[in-house]
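User: My collaborator and I are trying to settle a disagreement about how two of our proteins should look. Neither of us wants to argue from intuition anymore, so we agreed to look at predicted structures for both before our next call. Could you fold the first one, then the second, and keep them clearly separated?

Assistant: That sounds like a sensible way to settle it. I'll keep them separate. The first protein:
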Amino acid sequence: MPITKSAKKALRQARKRERRNLLWKNKIKKIKKDIKRLIENKKIAEAKKILPQFYKAVDKAAKNNIIKKNTAARKKSRLTKLITMAK
């Protein structure tokens, strides 16, 4: 447990940031899972409609340094490729 005042504040900040980061990561995972489920059920048109939401979530996470820029690009590229190959 932190003892000094600054260490206590640092712990509070770290917990707050962790919650915020997990929120974005979970949002990305959920949308990705939804898209993959739609692809499995051959609902490509619906998957394409959800894709912009995925792009937005990934881009915002990358902008706020929750995930790295290249990781964001890789995630977007792979999911897009998956949709186009499912036709």
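The second protein, kept apart from the first:
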Amino acid sequence: MAGNDGLVRPEERADTRFAWAMAGLAAGVGALPLLLPTGLAPQDWPGHLARAAMLADMLRGDGPWAAFYTLNPSAWANVLVDALAVALLSAKVPFLIAARVVLVLCYLAFLGGFNALARVTAGGGAIKLGFAAVLFSNGALFYGLISYLFGLGVLMGALALWLGGGVRVRLVLATLGVAVVFACHLVAAALFAGIVAGLGLWGLAAARRWDWRHGAGLLAPVVLLAFMRGSAAGGGGTGLAWVGAPSVARMLYWKLSIFARSWLGGAPAADWALLGGAILLGGLVWRLGRPRLSPTALGIVAMTALLALLAPQRLGAGSLLDFRLALVPLLLAAAMVELHPRGQSGARLLCAAVLVTCAVRSVVLTAAWYAADRQYMALDARLARLSAGGVLLTGAGRPVAQVPWREYWSPTVGNIAALGVRHGLFVPTVFAAASQQVLVLQAAYQPWNVAVDTSDAAALDAVRQQAAGLCARFAGGVHLLVIYPSAQDLPGMERIADRFGVLDICGVQPA
């Protein structure tokens, strides 16, 4: 039944137990890649856990980390996921178990927010639970943007409360709600503030008079800006611009293709599974589901799509902001689309298609990530043999442009050096920037915050010369983890499980 603003109020569904059983299976199967032994397949995720482990040690007064990092109490954005990990690690939960627990909590927050929004705007239903399970496996997950994914779950839940709430609820959401989403992730908070402000302007224009039911939305961007002004997120360069594209055609290509590219990665076969599933689901939804977006839902989807197209980025080359924003229109459209299957048989067929899509994609991802997991464990065992108190640098054996898509995404290995932290090694490539994290890498070590070039023996010699000061300073030694090693091993390098190499940068061979 349609209510105010064209929203669909929650009501009894005609979904059968069979449909709900399939949706529940899809939700369970969708969690399989998150339950692997290390739980470290997403690219940036090992860095999250490494930061959390160091913070947990520093809060207890343990570990050598105060010599390399400072605490930044004004970093209020993007802290919730790291705080969950710190809490688990401080409670003596083992590192690799904590990794999986936080990933599962993120998954549950995503499913919960998606389904809350679906219930308010489209009546919910078993099919929507399956949609959420399929859509969680996206580019943000593969890049390891776990804080952002958690933030999207909270954003969708907050938007559901906004659309279904009265003036008091909206005032709370425009203040405290923005603060909670901001703590999850800055970009998610900006999206939430922008959406509710847009809805407010739209409602005021339609009413042609001031109305707090709509005007409360205009408070959200003001609160967001105040939080940014008072936190570390308000400073620091973003590196964003509307320039940089080699041509207008290239700019348009990137901007339009990013809506598809933001769902790809993890494993090549998983991309084919998603493509096949999208074609199957799209056809069935159009044929059997009689899809419809309310004016409010259509306005929200259009706003977020326009934002993704117009946002300032490194146009033509792309950035992680592209991937974050381009996910949102399809995600919100899938949650808010009203589906009216043609009878119980239509609902069952749609749920079966969602289950098949989710199962195939999830099983393929699990297989690819399990193969990588075995290599991660082999690397972890080798790093455990290095002397605690040493340094672990990161080197790239080949430029990323020369790494085949299959090797790069099965899965990415760029931040796996962070595993060294759990063995007492200082890993300066762990992301710890003043504008985004509570933990900040000291300026003296920031030149080593990137993967150095180790593509050949000459490049390795240059790195050795640059690292002479580190060799003199660290009695535990300075080692180099080579990711994507070339076919020809570097002098002194011990190859680990094909994906990695480890060598002593100071010239002493590993034990």
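Some points you might bring to the call about the second protein. Confidence is low (pLDDT under 50) at residues 1-6, 8-14. The chain has two domains: 13-364, 386-504.
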